[in-house]
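Protein in question quoted for reference:
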Amino acid sequence: MNLLKTSLLHLILAGLLALTNARAADIAPAEVSAIAREAYIYGFPFVEGYKTLYKQAVDTGGPDFKAPFNQLGHSRNAATPDDKQFVTPNSDTPYSYLWGDLRAEPLVITMPKIESERYYSGQMIDLYTHNFAYLGTRAFGNEGGDFLITGPGWKGEVPNGIKAVIPCETELFYVLFRTQLFNADDIGNVRKIQDGYQVQTMSKFLGKATPPAASAIDWPKPTKDMTETPEMFGYLNFLLQFCPAHPSENELMARFAKLGIGAGKTFQSEQPKPIEEGIAEVWQNDFAAMMKRINGGELGSADLFGTREFLKNNYPYRFLGAKLGIYGNSREEAIYPPYFVDAEGNKPDASKHNYTLRFEKEQLPPAGAFWSLTMYDGKSQLLVANPLQRYLVNSPMLKSFKLAADGSLTIYLQKESPGEDMESNWLPAPNGPFYCIMRIYLPKPAVFNGEWKQPKLQQAN
């Protein structure tokens, strides 16, 4: 009887699968292309983020492994060109890392008390790449404390001594801790602060018995082109199992299901050509149009990163943020004025030109914490190796810069030294294409109300 039941079940499942495939195959190619385009934009940030998750928390033998889930890992120095775990890294604040798993129980994150003049933060990111909350200077001050992080649908008693309860809408999440480094001699102080970041399960925090462990996860190994081909949808389906459906996305998920895209589904490319055409359209039209707005100053990092409520399910913006610099901060925490083109609208290339960036007197970036300008290789999107081992210039370096007689500051962006007398103002560039990102931590109102204008990158005469 059990054998008969099993056989019948297999026949039913096979029939359902055949019916699903038939429906997918019967969808008009134009609709397939449109759904693939929409799903690719939606899913790209998930899968781009999975690359980091796998490197840092799963691939124990890899060069970028930091720590297992629910344990902290640290980069004990500021980023260098050897750091390749994600593109466009900052080199202002040595990172600490936490990949959290909330399936079994909540976690308690401890922030240490630090001096008032130093900036630190814990940027909390869900699998959607929403910045769902912050710890640290702006959000809670520098006094530190214990914070309870809860998973989807958690209902329980909050332990005594908890400073705040922070819910996460996905079962897995990421925290990027940033600790300001004042100068090279300050690294020992930064490391002491990093050691003060702590994470523990709620049961351990309470000294109680540990609940049953969550089931083991069979992590799919990343492939080279996983975010560039329809293969991405298989990874998306895997990740969506940790993301209970949000009510605002029910209709979206119903459309995606027509192509076998969704939690627990199997993506099968019944019509590969229109799917590939949909993905190609994202890069040819959507991405190109948004980059035009970025380069024209209409769109910036302040628009691309934040909570679900802030982004209002603007999936193209979330996609663009993941492509240009995944895990960027929300605008209240930091903004990132970019330099992808020069004043003439051309992509900078230090093999062809030298460049300058001039800040007029009293027109330095208005930062409540600090600002920086970082150089990136235009091909790899990583930091640029150079003889000075200087990857950025920032406000803590102000005393070392040479100012003009009128009080202005000129930064030289070029592959060769501008001369020993102006080398303090030199930001070395690669022998080829590059871009720069300015970072303004805790931006002041002048950044948003138009009082401060971002200077343009000029070709040097």
In short: The first helix runs from residue 2 to 26. Residues 1-22 have pLDDT under 50 and may be disordered. The domain at 337-459 is CATH 2.60.120.1600 (Jelly Rolls).
